[in-house]
């Protein structure tokens, strides 16, 4: 029996697992997908928000500011790139100047450091590609950018390095309450645990309904994006927001940690049952272009390399729900974690651990806990001398598989064999970026498939793009001598 079963391996479930791995506990993460970070965590704005906009009394406001301050240490320990590029909320009309003032006041109440209002000229000096009509901006130096899925994968890997188990393809279908424990069922397996932590993203209400009548519901709210090629790098230097509205933070233009440019998201409420609708649509993408033009008219959309969408977990309560259930003892909900959930993840993990420790005060520490994740080799960033040395040690680092991103075979093999390693084309792309460049995997995809089959003793027809049914090859079109190889 496990002490704790965490449902969901997004950034929240993974961060919670790593935090609880500091203690001598038997923990399992149950994830319905075939990889870590396949829910909302893989499709969002990737901003570590400074935290000036949520109501000062809200849990999300407090978690955001605390989580933001923890990012340097967490990302250093987990070897995840993170940059504090700062953000600007721009006022385009005189009436919006008041909004900047109220965001500034709210930010001060929450303790956000370094906020200041810049004049239109100061904004133009920092951001020459923004429209010159901008009147002023709220500058937040602590805002940052990160790769959200990389953070989740790193959290999960480090949790596993510290003894946590991960069960992929385990969709929780039912939970039975027994004396002193929960029986958690997938379609073909049952896991028993003393405590359940529900971090199931947009499905957190459905998971809670398995043990109680939910006092909250989660509505999916979709946001769509354009992602521009690295050739657009430098279009903006900060994360640029318009003034916020009832629908949220608005359509931003932002650099990504890998040097691309992101434009979006819109905000579209879907029906409560549309929790898989991560498709993009022509009308909403057109709306994003038109709306972003109010901030930046010179966005080079011809450099667009992909579009994508993510689903916000919009809770009926309006705020993060992070608490032991009132109805069901030892069942902890971590639900409604919409934006700024990524920014808040380190603080949410600490809060969940402290709820667990309040319920179980005699929990011992894990004496072997190691917070440091083994660093990844980033071949493209190495000096010529370091590259030569690396190739001499392991020639697989000398074989470049992805020419857009300059990713070597050695890096891909390492990404497969680490804890929480990649098993699909997109899983490898999220870990080491083959396929994330301009050709979007057109050249390197088949090579990555070959490496996956070799390293995992699979057939080519077993390899999937992403989810369970996303087969790439179905068989040979022409029969030949090497038929058995597929
Ligand atoms: C458009 C958009 C923009 C955003 N921008 C930002 C931003 O810039 N900054 C920021 O701080 N936040 C942002 N967010 C919010 C942030 O992305 C989320 O708060 C965060 O990713 C939530 O992580 P999670 O682990 O709770 O959810 P998820 O990543 O969705 O993880 C939940 C996991 O649970 C699994 N699961 C569900 N049901 C079951 C089941 N029955 N059994 C087993 N597993 C199950 C899912 O497969 C999934 O992997 C944005 C969100 C969106 C949609």
From TrEMBL:
Entry-linked CDD domains: GlpA-like_Fer2_BFD-like (cd19946)
Origin superkingdom: Bacteria
Positions of the FAD dependent oxidoreductase domain: 3-354
Checking SUPFAM superfamilies in the record gives: FAD/NAD(P)-binding domain
According to the entry, every stretch annotated as the BFD-like [2Fe-2S]-binding domain falls at 400-453
The record's InterPro entries line, in alphabetical order, gives: BFD-like_2Fe2S-bd_dom, BFD-like_2Fe2S-bd_dom_sf, FAD-dep_OxRdtase, FAD/NAD-bd_sf, G3P_Oxidase/Oxidoreductase
Q: Which PANTHER family match?
A: GLYCEROL 3-PHOSPHATE OXIDASE, GLYCEROL-3-PHOSPHATE DEHYDROGENASE
Protein name as catalogued: NAD(P)/FAD-dependent oxidoreductase
Q: Which organism is it from?
A: Fusibacter paucivorans
């Amino acid at each position: 029996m496990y002490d704790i079963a965490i449902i969901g391996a997004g950034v929240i479930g993974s961060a919670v697992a790593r935090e609880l791995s500091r203690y001598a506990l038997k923990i399992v993460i149950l994830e319905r997908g075939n990889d870590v970070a396949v829910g909302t965590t893989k499709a969002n704005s990737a901003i570590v928000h400074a935290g000036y906009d949520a109501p000062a009394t809200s849990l999300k406001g407090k978690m955001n500011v605390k989580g933001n301050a923890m990012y340097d240490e967490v990302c250093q320990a987990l070897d995840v790139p993170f940059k504090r590029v700062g953000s600007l909320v721009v006022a385009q009309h005189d009436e919006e100047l008041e909004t900047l003032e109220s965001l500034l006041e709210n930010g001060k109440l929450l303790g956000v450091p370094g906020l200041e209002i810049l004049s239109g000229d100061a904004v133009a000096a920092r951001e020459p590609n923004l429209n010159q009509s901008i009147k002023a901006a709220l500058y937040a130096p602590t805002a940052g950018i990160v790769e959200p899925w990389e953070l989740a994968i790193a959290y999960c890997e480090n949790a596993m390095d510290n003894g946590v188990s991960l069960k992929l393809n385990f969709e929780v279908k039912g939970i039975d309450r027994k004396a002193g424990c929960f029986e958690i069922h997938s379609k073909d397996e049952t896991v028993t645990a003393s405590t359940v932590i529900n971090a199931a993203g947009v499905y957190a209400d459905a998971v809670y309904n398995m043990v109680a009548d939910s006092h909250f519901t989660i509505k999916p709210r979709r946001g769509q994006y354009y992602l521009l090629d690295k050739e657009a790098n430098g279009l903006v230097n900060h994360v640029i927001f318009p003034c916020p509205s009832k629908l949220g933070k608005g359509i931003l233009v932002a650099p990504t940690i890998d040097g691309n440019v992101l434009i979006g998201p819109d905000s579209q409420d879907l029906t409560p049952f549309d929790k898989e609708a991560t498709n993009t649509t022509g009308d909403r993408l057109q709306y994003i272009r038109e709306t972003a033009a109010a901030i930046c008219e010179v966005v080079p959309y011809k450099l667009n390399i992909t579009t994508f969408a993510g689903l916000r977990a919009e809770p009926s309560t309006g705020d993060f729900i992070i608490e032991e259930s009132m109805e069901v003892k030892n069942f902890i909900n971590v639900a409604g974690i919409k934006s700024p959930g990524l920014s808040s993840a380190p603080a949410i993990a600490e809060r969940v651990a402290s709820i667990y420790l309040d319920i179980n005060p005699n929990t011992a520490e894990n004496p072997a806990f190691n917070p440091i994740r083994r660093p990844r080799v980033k071949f493209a960033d190495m000096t010529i001398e370091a590259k030569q040395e690396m190739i001499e040690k392991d020639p697989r680092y000398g074989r470049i598989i992805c020419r857009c991103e300059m990713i070597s075979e050695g890096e891909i093999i390492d990404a497969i064999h680490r804890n929480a390693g990649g098993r699909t084309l997109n899983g490898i792309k999220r870990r080491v970026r083959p396929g994330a460049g301009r050709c979007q995997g057109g050249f390197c995809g088949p090579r990555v498939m070959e490496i996956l089959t070799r390293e995992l003793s699979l057939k080519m027809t077993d390899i999937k793009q992403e989810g369970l049914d996303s087969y790439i090859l179905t068989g040979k079109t022409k029969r030949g001598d090497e038929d058995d190889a597929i």
